[in-house]
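Sanity check

After download, print the first record. It should look like this:
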Amino acid sequence: MTVKIIGAGLAGCEAALTLANRGIKVQLTDCKPSAMSPAHHDTKFAEVVCSNSFKSDDPLTASGLLKAELRILGSRLIAIADRVSVPAGSALAVDREKFARAVTDEVTLCPNIEVVCATVSEVDLSVPTIIATGPLTMPPLSDFLTKLFGASLYFYDAEAPIVDGSSIDFDHAYYGSRYGKGDDYINCPLSKAEYYEFVRALVSAERVIAKEFEKDEIFEGCMPIEIMARRGIDTLRFGPLKSAGVVDEAGNSPFAVVQLRKENEEGTMYNLVGFQTNLKFGEQKRVFGLIPALKNVEILRYGVMHRNMYVNAPTVIDRHFRIKKYPTCYIAGQLSGVEGYVESIASGLVAALNIEKAIKGEEPIELSPQTMIGALCAYLERPNGHFQPMNANHGLLPPLKNVDRSKRKEAFFARSMANFRQNG
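Expected structure tokens:
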């Protein structure tokens, strides 16, 4: 029995390695390198596009709990991410090039995985298959899926710029993480006058797409910074530019601060944290140059915006990522309605474990909704008239009883770990 996996992104590679390591033959098909989506820049598999951060690794956060659970389940991609991580405070951030290369090498060298370079036009719904083509699924497969599932839902997603670390002006910047937790970020402080000048320029700058942004199609988790700024002149300084916990050598906290995070281990490239944008390239150079530390910065990759697609999960798939109308086939990754790198990895792992169960004639695995992975799976199946992609968050978990709010996160973590111990 060979399982077909379409798409060699995070979910597809996790699913392929999970199955292959359990002795199941896999045919992994991807259009790279013969074809590339507008957002991809690299011919290697498992390319991380928007940011190199896999979010917090603190187990008391929702994303940290999700990673802790994936490590228990033996996620190959999280293990690789741990191996090629770069300093990022309490976050798990990776060297993108090393991460993609390591995943690609592991996939291509695995004897149980056959890699096929092809553009898939349709899916044989009668054979075990995982569709993991991501939110940028391209025609003709996107057309096939639209016909299969009806009108597709979609949102717009944005990427932040990457700058040359050597061009940052350290007369106006300093190293440090929030609340003294290391020196992993470059802080670019803004005075009150500088902040308001920056926001005024940001909201009036030219964008690549304008009319579409006025609709309710922008996903909150990747809100372009210029759209966020239009919600109020102080919105950014209580959001991505908040200065809480950031102090300079003299112990002073700035009015607002732009943080830069390493893109690679060498520290030659930095990502503007929270600066997903759809400004025209010239406008990015002009407006972001108003930040004193970035006045003469070299932008290595400009921020861009692209159209993301996903299925209406509650009507299309169950909590096992199995397509309801075609139970031999599964959907994983952001196409399934999860949002985020680690969430996509989790979906690929769960889909793979369940397709293995199906091949063996066994019942699918049941992850408790008291775990973060189980809660995310349950969300996808829950009826919802206005379904939107979801990332890991504590709001998905069942409430705790008789637990002080200050101890809530510790209790969520303890409850999840107890579930995994009880259920093996």
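If your output differs, re-run the checksum step. Summary of this record's structure: The two ends are 27 Å apart (CA to CA).
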